[in-house]
Amino acid sequence: MSQLPLQERLAILADAAKYDASCASSGTAKRTSRGGKGIGSTEGMGICHAYAPDGRCISLLKILLTNHCVFDCHYCINRKSSNVRRARFTPQEVVDLTLAFYRRNYIEGLFLSSGIVKSSNHTMEQLIEVARILREEHDFRGYIHLKTIPEADPELVRQAGLWADRVSINVELPTAAGLTRLAPDKNIATIEGAMGGVSQAIVEAKDARRHFRHAPRFAPGGQSTQMIVGADGASDTDIVTRSSLLYGRFGLRRVYYSAFSPIPDASAVLPLKRPPLLREHRLYQSDWLMRFYGFAPGEVAAAAGSDGMLPLDIDPKLAWALRFRERFPVDVNRAPREALLRVPGLGVRAVGALLAARRQRRLRLEDVGRLTVSLAKVRPFIVTADWRPTLLTDRADLRALVAPAQPDQLELFAA
């Protein structure tokens, strides 16, 4: 069969990569191309950066090396039994595309994943070759994120970390039972073993850098993973608990959540309907509660209903506060930081500003109002110099008073 033109292959393989959400570039080492040395950068001038609110760079060329795959994961559009158009790049073609896109100021870096072609080791070697050519032959100093293959030889995964800023291994599904049922070619022990190897290599490289200035870096942006939400019967509580374990065991930089999307010629074991995208959003909010607000997994789970699902109409912190009203109201002039972080509507920056301001004066309700988007959401849960909610915190209809109006849900991949 004749090879498709490059532009057609780019369209196929860029579209196939859109289902992988774990392509953030926060936390990378700082490298610039100032002084006429090398090309690409992870900071500085000369390229138009696009950042998400949490600082993630999104100016990346995001493609698959190939969508051919010898695995038959039911949820994957590129599984071997799927009737999709197949395409493949050579490592040199990916290098040429990356450099061409960078020189046109379209991107700042590369996110590269792949289906498994021939074998896990062969595919991993191809991915590494792309990064090696960019770094070694073209002195490319931009961001590179490689999606590694857990079934590949550990030495190959180690090589990937030497060339890439960030590496990631997808756990795919929150439970071992779900993985066994929907991805029969994958094994949870193999995936976690590979993640453990990457985690250990990152720690060892950091330790070496403390002792030897020129010791090689290893994945300075850390490692991340992704879970598919809604493809199996896992509840939000299952997902939150699993994420917490992954953060604790492997020191992950991020866990990404991707709402399951029905695919053409789908397996009969998959649900016919996609989960609400708002569910994915609530899981991200829960993730932030654990990472930045001091919530334990059990506390986040306590915000869920009896079915283990987080409410969709309100955020998890508000759901937790409504369930544990005995913890409120808190006095913004006296409460410790940990208690203020539990107040719905107060973010990390707002709490920091309140703590700094109250050293100078007694805070009033208007002072809090300057630091929050919705003062109505905050009022039932705080005490200030001029405000006390009295019976408002215990009102039976408090949820209706503080719940935001729900807009119509938008489709992520709608035309």
TrEMBL record:
Residues in Radical SAM core domain copies: 64-175
Coiled coil: none
Key words of the record: Iron, Iron-sulfur, Metal-binding, S-adenosyl-L-methionine
Gene Ontology molecular function, alphabetical: catalytic activity; iron-sulfur cluster binding; metal ion binding
Cofactor(s) of this protein: [4Fe-4S] cluster
InterPro entries in the cross-refs: Aldolase_TIM, DNA_rSAM_put, Endo/Exo/Phosphatase_dom_1, rSAM, rSAM_sf, RuvA_2-like
One Pfam family of this chain: Radical_SAM
Database matches in Gene3D superfamilies: Aldolase class I
Protein name: Putative DNA modification/repair radical SAM protein
